């Protein structure tokens, strides 16, 4: 009986220690897929960084763009034209004058000179006086829009600074004007 029990234990132990042939786990080569995933992630990160850099550069350029020299900004318009022998500011120039006035009100350290001009018809004295009235008309319009007098000066060049040469209506029309000139320009 003892031998039988011992034999059964030995058989059980041998059975427990026996191994069955197992098949090796299949080896999958994921290195190609991992490399592609890493490359795609690197490209996405590079694209995101490039987009952020472009946005920062655009914001930097926008902050550096001077509204006075930006051709798309109304502040780059500086001439008020007048009819022959007149110095009343036409309503078509109101938005431009309002924009300049708003700019001056928001930039208290900026000053402008309004330069009155005439065509070459009339005496020198008459043209100087008419140019002064044109400059004063634009200055007063901006003053009514809360621009302090200390920020503005009105001067007359009469016929001395023509914009266009010639003895025809097209040239004269270009010379009957008041120019808004910012200090330092």
UniProtKB/TrEMBL annotation:
Q: Name the Pfam families on file.
A: OmpA
What does the function comment of this entry state? Answer: Part of the Tol-Pal system, which plays a role in outer membrane invagination during cell division and is important for maintaining outer membrane integrity.
Q: Where in the cell is it found?
A: Cell outer membrane
Family indicated by similarity: Belongs to the Pal lipoprotein family.
Can you name a GO cellular component term? cell outer membrane
* InterPro entries for this protein: Bact_OuterMem_StrucFunc, OMP_bac, OmpA-like, OMPA-like_CS, OmpA-like_sf, Pal, Pal_lipo_C
List the residue ranges forming a coiled coil, or say none: 32-59
Where this protein primarily resides, as one coarse class? membrane
What's its membrane topology?
Lipid-anchor
Q: Which domain of life is it from?
A: Bacteria
Q: Which residues form the signal peptide?
A: 1-21
Which terms are listed as keywords in the entry? Answer: Cell cycle, Cell division, Cell outer membrane, Coiled coil, Lipoprotein, Membrane, Palmitate, Signal
Q: Tell me the protein's name.
A: Peptidoglycan-associated lipoprotein
Assembly behavior: The Tol-Pal system is composed of five core proteins: the inner membrane proteins TolA, TolQ and TolR, the periplasmic protein TolB and the outer membrane protein Pal. They form a network linking the inner and outer membranes and the peptidoglycan layer.
Please tell me the species this chain comes from. Sulfuriferula nivalis
Gene Ontology BP term (one): cell division
OmpA-like domain residues: 69-185
């Amino acid at each position: 009986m003892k031998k039988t029990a011992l034999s059964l234990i030995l058989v059980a132990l041998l059975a427990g220690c026996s191994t069955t042939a197992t098949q090796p786990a299949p080896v999958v080569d994921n290195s190609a897929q991992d490399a592609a995933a890493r490359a795609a992630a690197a490209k996405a990160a590079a694209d995101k960084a490039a987009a952020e850099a472009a946005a920062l550069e655009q914001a930097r350029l926008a902050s550096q763009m001077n509204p006075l020299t930006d051709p798309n900004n109304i502040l780059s318009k500086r001439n008020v034209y007048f009819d022959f022998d007149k110095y009343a500011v036409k309503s078509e120039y109101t938005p431009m004058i309002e924009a300049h006035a708003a700019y001056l009100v928001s930039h208290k350290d900026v000053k402008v000179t309004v330069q009155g001009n005439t065509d070459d018809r009339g005496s020198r004295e008459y043209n100087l006086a008419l140019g002064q009235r044109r400059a004063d008309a634009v200055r007063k319009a901006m003053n009514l829009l809360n621009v302090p007098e200390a920020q503005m000066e009105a001067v007359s060049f009469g016929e001395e600074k023509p914009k266009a040469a010639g003895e025809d209506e097209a040239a004269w029309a270009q010379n009957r004007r008041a120019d808004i000139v910012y200090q330092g320009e």
